[in-house]
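<amino_acid_chain>
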Amino acid sequence: MESLNRVEISAEALRHNFNICKKMAGEAGVMAMVKADAYGHGMVDCARVLAAEGAAAFGVAEVVEGVVLRKAGLTLPVFILAGIIPDTVETALHHDLTPVIVDDEAIQALDATAGRLQKRVGVHLKMDAGMGRQGTVPADFRRLVDKVNAAKNLYPAGILAHLPMADAADGRHSAMVLDVFNRCIASVRDDLPATCCCHIANSGGLFTVKDAQLQMVRPGISLYGYYADGESGRAKYSDDELLQPVMRFVSRILQVREVASNSGLGYGHLFTTTRPSKIALIPVGYEDGYLRCLSNKAEVLVRGQRAPVVGRISMNLTMVDVTEIKDVSVGEEVVLLGKSGDAEVNADEIASWMETISYEVLCLFGKMNNRYFIDERRL
């Protein structure tokens, strides 16, 4: 029997978003970011759709994710963007995954394993061009290129970096990071193959940073229908160019209660009614990623109308004030994320209530609930 809670993933919205990203990428290839289980949307199902639409590669964080893609029959290049360590080299090369090296720690193991497997392996070198998190800084980058070139069975197939402020309204920092990246590459160009693929643009970079496309782009959140700069990004585009949210989170009403005025509700009586009220209970709580910080803040949709969440969200139950909605009954659908009629609650709005970003909302809901992949072309 199915759970009353379900996360619905739209393949058609995913296709729409990918093709917007592909258009913005111009001549650059599109590495579709499917790490973190495709931001909670289901890595394998999403990867199959994205491959069919023309993705050039997939981006994941860890080797184990790449192995899942290979076992599912995906044959496009898969980049291990968080990096390779000696312990994961054997598995990565066995499954033909593309190693990203952040320093020289894994070069010896990669070279030896590639030689044993009789492979010549192209690696991508991660530069810290201003992110301040991971990679090799420009001052040491030539030394890293030299070590890769000195290896018998490796070659520098690509260079990548990250834009730490691509979602900022002021693009000066991103322009500076891109300039550092390009100047460092130019300084070692003679030691790189002509086919070396350079890439730095994430979703924010693709949509807002001039000349950041280079040879490849790495959209993530934009594939799933959201802008790196949140709702302000959505306001910049016309309807036909607008990204479409891919995820919808729905539940159903378990009980409807008539409650007197001045009644305390739920744990700690965090909410007290100020009028005779009608309260609907839904089987959603922090176990499902609907966090306690949404208590007395969030709104849901019932019959296309907004209804406030009231009282403390508990592990498995949330209370919704449906006093203003006539004749609400047990079993009716409640939309926590997505559309109902003309109304919509999106992940940016939920993120504002949670004081976080849309990425976290999508990962929480997608990973903690039963997920249903809906391909509208096959209905």
Summary: The chain has two domains: 11-241, 247-345. The longest strand covers residues 333-340.
